Amino acid sequence: MKLVMAFIKPFKLDEVREALTPLGVQGLTVTEVKGFGRQKGQTEIYRGAEYQVSFLPKIKIEVVVPDELVDAVMEAVAKAARTDKIGDGKIFVLEVERALRIRTGETDTSAL
Q1: What is the DSSP secondary-structure string of the chain?
Q2: What pTM value is reported for the model?
Q3: Neighbours of 61 (CB within 10 A)
Q4: Which residues, renumbered to this chain, carry the PTM O-UMP-tyrosine (predicted)?
């Protein structure tokens, strides 16, 4: 099992969720986060005054999937989240050693 963690622009969330549903992804976790990458924030103008925004709003999506779905999930997220502009985000994949569904006691891939 793998944890696929993606950081995307907030307005792309619905498109990403719709892209994952046909793959059989049954659940995901979404968190509103702030951060910056290579763009190092941005300059905003508010009421005529210019100020620096260091952290930009992002959405963090986490989904645990069987190993055989990782490539398809990464491709679907990347395609749905892409705007071809700086700040589109990143995808990370981490190993998940164990999983347990608390209600039923199912473990590992059965718990997904």
Answers
A1: -EEEEEEE-GGGHHHHHHHHGGGT----EEEEEEE--TT--EEEEETTEEEEE-SEEEEEEEEEE-GGGHHHHHHHHHHHH--SSTT-EEEEEEE----B-TTT--BGGGG-
A2: 0.85
A3: 24
A4: 51
Instruction: Classify domain 2-111 at the CATH topology level.
Output: Alpha-Beta Plaits (3.30.70)
What is the rounded distance in angstroms from the CA atom of residue 50 to the CA atom of residue 63?
38
* Six-digit token string for 43: 């300059």
Cα torsion 97, 112, 6, 82 to 10°: value is 140
| Residue corresponding to tokens 């398809």 | 72
pLDDT for res 112: 85
* DSSP string covering 95-109: E----B-TTT--BGG
| pLDDT single digits (tens) 14-57 | 999 999 999 999 899 999 998 877 766 566 555 666 666 677 88
In angstroms, rounded to a whole number, what is the distance separating the alpha carbons of residues 2 and 25?
13
